Amino acid sequence: MKRLSLLLLLTLSLGFTVPQDNITGENPLRKIHNEAFVQGEYLKYRIHYGIINAGIAELKIEGIENRNGRQAYHMVGKGRSVGMAEWFFKTRDRYETWIDIEAMVPWEFIRDVNEGGFEIKRHLIFDQFKNKVRDLEAPKKGVFEIPDGVQDLLSTFYYARTLPTDTLNMGEELPIDMFLDHEMFNFKLKYLGLENVKTKFGKVRCRVFRPVVQEGRVFKDKETMTLWVTDDENKIPVRLQTELVIGSIKMDLVEYRNNAHPINFR
Questions:
Q1: Residue ranges per domain, the chain?
Q2: How far apart are CA 218 and CA 176, in angstroms?
């Protein structure tokens, strides 16, 4: 069911003011050109396990807020189980991230997950100037060192959409450093080529990617995750599918609005 958790992303404010570091700017931040998304974008996905309607995932750019004296997008991801899945694995997930508009790196990340009674809470505060991060939910863990440009679980989704894909060759990989559960992961998106995908809105040409983590492994043996992203300036995922030992989990785009550019469905 961890695959369902990732698909439900694929992140509630805790009700107090987050302490802000007195950042002096030891390391200058990069500048990333973004044309893929804008404030107000909303994406909704339906998740199926075989023929079972298993869940709903929603992603929204809520607004622009201040973090560490800089403007940041506030993104919210919510996931929940529905139908039969409520009976055997009730899921309520919420993720939040605040991403620097210019540098496309997170300043803050909240993860509030309840999956079948199993709970995970994270509240990460990033100092991207000093390459450090701490978790307010686990203060005894101390401060972690992180590399330049590190992403959290939710910001990875948005940052990946800013990466250039027009000149990719088959088999080429896009590297992304991700901090998850107090560990660093060398996450990559392997490019598999172009494919026309049939959706509820019509057919659309997509670039196909395969997420890869840790020394070339793609999740577990006999399990494969594939991602279809619109071949346009939006770079919106329209389908994500995980092949399991028995059956598969599939997530399809069922609603979208306020995207930066029209999508050429045919």
A1: 2-257
A2: 15
